[in-house]
Write a structure and sequence with these properties.
The chain has helices spanning about 5-15, 25-30, 35-45, 75-85, 115-125, 185-200; strands spanning about 50, 55, 70-75, 90-95, 105-110, 130-140, 160, 165-170, 175, 180-185. By secondary structure, it is α+β, with helices and mostly antiparallel strands. The chain folds into 3 domains: about 5-55, Arc Repressor Mutant, subunit A (Orthogonal Bundle); about 70-140, 2-Layer Sandwich (Alpha-Beta Plaits); about 150-215, no CATH class.
């Protein structure tokens, strides 16, 4: 059987989620006709890729060397520990802690299929009491965006402090906190921001620092 294309992967991912998905539903999901979907599935069966609607992924057929993205919703009391553990994993390429519904986003390096299985097993082995929800996907295309070039030594650049909200220029104190770089007008604001961020990670605060909607003291 020839290499699988994006439509094949879409069909297989859908069947992995629900092997009883109808030809009509698969056709709507892939913008194919029902006969075209049926023909593709018959090829999977003939090649041994699908055996009695149990999918056996052949390493030579699927996208060898593709990376994956994982969206995790983790209880705030466990977020810091889980993030540290996954950061040390050899397959983790990028990791972001966010304030959204999914508060931990992982992107892996390009992996062989057996490595994908190993990484998925690692995700599945995380404490059940910590993990509330997980979504995973294979990255089909990766686009390298051009980085924004900022002046190395801005003279008149005005910055708003991420803690007190005051606009200032001149010496800047910065540190990566909660998934992105934060800027502060003084070491005191940076220290107070870090304290509130730590409380947010532990679940003692429900709103990330800087988003409380009220003036801080």
């Amino acid at each position: 059987m020839q290499k699988l294309d994006k439509i094949d992967l879409r069909i297989l991912e859908t069947l992995l989620e629900d092997s009883r998905t109808t030809y009509a539903d698969l056709a709507r999901a892939t913008n194919l006709t029902i006969p075209s979907v049926k023909t593709r599935i018959e090829k999977y069966i003939d090649s041994g890729l699908i055996d009695k609607f149990t999918i056996n992924l052949d390493e030579n057929m699927i996208m060898e060397g593709a990376s994956m993205t994982f969206l995790l919703k983790i209880k705030p009391t466990h977020l810091n520990k889980i993030a540290e553990e996954m950061y040390e994993n050899k397959y983790t390429a990028n990791m972001t802690i966010t304030s959204g519904h999914y508060n931990l986003i992982l992107v892996t390096h390009n992996m062989r299929d057996k490595d994908k299985i190993e990484f998925i097993n690692k995700i599945n082995s995380l404490p059940e009491e910590a993990i509330m929800e997980v979504i995973s996907s294979i990255n089909l295309d990766v686009f390298q965006c051009k980085p924004i070039e900022l002046p190395s030594a801005p003279v008149n650049l005005v910055i708003r402090c991420d803690y007190c909200g005051r606009k200032f220029s001149g010496e800047v104190f910065s540190k990566a906190i909660l998934g992105r770089k934060r800027y502060f007008c003084c070491p005191v604001c940076q220290e107070k921001y870090e304290e509130r961020a730590e409380k947010y990670i532990k679940g003692e605060l429900f709103t990330p620092p800087g988003e409380e909607g009220k003036e801080k003291t």
